[in-house]
Amino acid sequence: MRTEDLIKALDADAGSKAMPLRSAWWLATAAAAAVAAVVFWLTIGPRLDIMTALHTMRFLSKFVFTIVLAATAFALIRALSTPGASTGKAAAWMIAAPLLVLVAVVLELFVVPEADWGTRLVGTNMMVCMTFIPLIGIGPLAIFLWMLRYGAPTRPALAGAVAGLLAGGLAATFYAAHCFDDSPLFVATWYSIAIAALAALGALGGRLFVRW
Q1: Is the keyword Transmembrane in the record (predicted)?
Q2: Most buried by CB count within 10 Å: which residue of 8, 37, 133, 211?
């Protein structure tokens, strides 16, 4: 069978599902957010001074980074789960969140004395960050991997990695409400490592469980 014929067959199979793939992704993401919320509230919950923190730019900027990551990963994974769909534009938008973090880090380096850079980067709860972003994200990742099987991705490992980024962005959004380390240096380092761990796990899951 030619590649073009295989893609058409997979696309027809994806389109024959009881629920349209586009609607299924929205439903799955809502379910993933609910799972993440339950884990977040049952484990760590929001920081005690969150009402005060809401008036600070550093605290709010964390949500900009994580939500942009989740939104761009959502767009890309929907495209990847549909055979023959164009992924170039969605993939290009994936640079948005890293660029925003980079700009914030540069600004931080300008306004914070060099002697404080190391303290801001290490923070006070990096191990909590490294533990709870994956913990909050593992349930959503499982949902997204299952959704990839509902669709028909032709690049399962890549799709799984993007599922991990989506789960990581979602989990990091919840975790940011708890985190007392608001420095972009901290976010760029430890949030990224925790999210990358979910992306790696997603790539492995895609390779093992989302194959055709």
Answers
A1: yes
A2: 133
Coil, strand or helix at 124:
coil
Which of 16, 5, 34 has its CA nearest to residue 174? 34
First-last CA distance in the chain: 14
pLDDT tens digit sequence for 165-196: 999 999 999 999 999 999 999 999 999 999 99
Residue type, 131: T
| Nearest C-alpha neighbor of 137 from the set 38, 204, 25 | 38
- Give per-residue pLDDT as tens, 100-119: 999 999 999 999 999 999 99
Phi, psi of 130 (to 5 degrees): -70, -25
Q: Do 39 and 141 contact (CB within 8 A), yes or no?
A: no
As a whole number of angstroms, the distance between CA 176 and CA 79 comes to 28
- Are 210 and 80 in contact by the 8 Å Cβ rule? The answer is no
Tokens of 204: 């492995």
Give Cα 176 to chain centroid, integer Å: 13
Asked if 161 and 203 count as a contact pair (C-beta separation under 8 A), the reply is: yes
Q: How many of the other CB atoms lie within 10 Å of CB of 17?
A: 13
Residue 88's CB: how many other CB atoms inside 10 A?
A: 8
pTM given for the model? 0.89
Are 162 and 205 within 8 A, CB to CB?
no
